[in-house]
Amino acid sequence: MLLLIALTVAVAIKTFLVQPFYIPTESMLPTIEVNDRVMVSKLNYRFGEPQRGDIVVFLSPLNGEDDASFPKRVARVILEAVGIRTASADDLIKRVVAVAGDTVEIHDGKLFVNEVEVDEPYLMEEGTMGDFGPIVVPDDSVFVMGDNRDVSYDSRRFGPIANENLVGEAVLRIWPIGRFGAVDSVTPDS
Prior knowledge:
Blueprint: H1 2-16, E1 18-22, E2 37-41, E3 55-59, H2 70-81, E4 91-99, E5 103-107, E6 110-113, E7 116-117, E8 132-136, E9 141-145, H3 155-158, E10 161-162, E11 166-175, E12 181-182
Antiparallel strand pairs: 1-2, 2-11, 3-4, 3-11, 4-9, 5-6, 5-8, 6-7, 9-10, 11-12
């Protein structure tokens, strides 16, 4: 009975409050490193809107429909909630660089939002960005990019992300222990 209560509480917390995520790629270097684990708050966007600089986890726009049976989906949710299994590898983590109504453009290796160059101190020092845009971010959407732009699969390829597809905001690094602490969410000057 105690185990059932613990599982119910764990699933409720994962569903409504926070969820751990494993970072398998280099797209957010140097802010978030490969193999880091972060906690994602699911409450932030229930009571507010995403802001430029937020680091968000969202459903990949290329995810297929989940064709697993209902019992397999329930088992997956329970195993994710107690930390035995990680969430879908198709969930992505990126930084919000523009919000609804903003115009995004990249030229000469620089990001411009609403025709103003964005200061991005969190980027990898090396790297180049190809020209992009301009594009206006639609209502109820965000434009996301990885901090390691050379290897990031982001809105430059799949377009803006609807706010309804945001899982939440990465707020705390929980692993490795030596790097435990807040995930740096920097509001870019623009």
